[in-house]
Amino acid sequence: MAASHQATTLSSNALPLSIIQPVDIGHLLRELNEVDEKLRQDKIRSDGGVAKGATELKLSGDLSELMKQANLDINDQKVRSQMIEYLEHLKKDAPVLHISFSSEPSKPFLSKITAWLRQEVDPNTLVIVGLDPTIGAGSIVRTANHVFDFSLSTRLKKNHNILGEKIKQVTTAPAPEKPLKENHE
Fold this sequence. Notes:
Elements: H1 3-12, H2 22-45, H3 61-69, H4 77-93, E1 96-101, H5 107-120, E2 126-131, E3 139-142, E4 147-149, H6 152-158, H7 160-172
Parallel strand pairs: 1-2
Antiparallel strand pairs: 1-3, 3-4
Helix pairs in contact: 1-4, 2-4
């Protein structure tokens, strides 16, 4: 596969679901730069011959998954350079959503949210997870220019008049004339 075609393949594929946050892109970028430097040094040490290659390198699961999913050869210097450029582009320009929950969401839950966002919004969407115990239940989603508050606490605050009226109706309702039959079975 030609290097230019490989770069096109990488940019047209969605990121693996294990890569969720911008920090994950930073980790990939750091690791890929380290691999690139190691392979360059190996090539120099082998007197311009073929470098030993990535078979001796221990790649992280995320980098291995990214390379496999995009069908890329990490031993190809042009591919590594293009991937580094692509990851730097993602680090700066990928769409990022900030989602706050009242407690730490599970990894499978985050993967499902990320998969949906990448399918419906953009294949390179990244998610930053925040914790805010005052939310109660639900979440708050922030984009670059919008805030969507799906929290229970905000919903209760917005509807506190209705909630107060319903509580008042229940507490001031007349008592039933007949006592309820007790069931002693």
